[in-house]
Amino acid sequence: MNILLLGGTGDALQLARQLDPRTIYSLAGLGRVPQDLPCRVRVGGFGGAVGLAGFIRAEHIGLVFDATHPYAAQISANAAHACAQTGVAYWALRRPAWQAGPGDDWREVGDWADLTRALQAFRRPLFTSGREPLAHLDEIPPQQHWLVRCLDPHPGNARAQILGVRGPFTMDGERALMQQHDIDVIVSKNSGGSATEAKLAVARELGLPVLMQQRPTLPAATRQFFDLASAAQALLATQNRP
């Protein structure tokens, strides 16, 4: 069976490494493109749900597997719609969200305006929420200095430093980063998974609040998986089906 694997996450890359050339691994192209995969790699958008449906038909795709980021709501919506149009199964890996525990000071925020209001009480935020802050570097209040961590390098300015680095991150590394930059609040998406969870443990240890951005609502899938091992097992079994 030809499989379209929608990726861009560490989980998706682990799946792609196990699948053969009947699988097309699709990336938006915002980060590094792996060169050593046994499956095919496609980079770029599809042109919405209609374009994706056309691609599914042209490539004789029998299964679309959504392993995109939990906050990549638009591509997930397009995939669900395209699969409904073409009658193709739509499976998804839905990484469980992190849960606040004793000692955590998590404050849920919604859109950018909501986040900006919540940040007014702080001076030195650490953004670990992707590329969105890069579009607002000219709006930084005079009392604040931002430290923005995202996947790829980007120019900062007098009030912002950009770190282009990739996880996984360790407790020691996160602690050193926060203390070196005198961080007083963490901005995070509730992505789940272990690769970037250390920042939350360090925030708890240092007594730092976390502004946690709400998860978007994602479409229902024909089958949903909540851990990487079961997703890999199901994909391999499907790929090898006569």
Automatic annotation (TrEMBL):
Keywords: Cobalamin biosynthesis, Oxidoreductase. Pathway: Cofactor biosynthesis; adenosylcobalamin biosynthesis. One of its GO terms (biological process) is cobalamin biosynthetic process. The lineage of its organism: Bacteria, Pseudomonadati, Pseudomonadota, Betaproteobacteria, Neisseriales. Pfam families: CbiJ. InterPro entries: Precorrin-6x_reduct. PROSITE patterns: COBK_CBIJ. The keyword Oxidoreductase applies. NCBIfam families: PRK08057.1-2 (NF005968), PRK08057.1-3 (NF005969). This is Precorrin-6A reductase. It comes from Amantichitinum ursilacus. It is an enzyme of class 1 (oxidoreductase). Its EC number is 1.3.1.54. GO terms for molecular function: precorrin-6A reductase activity.
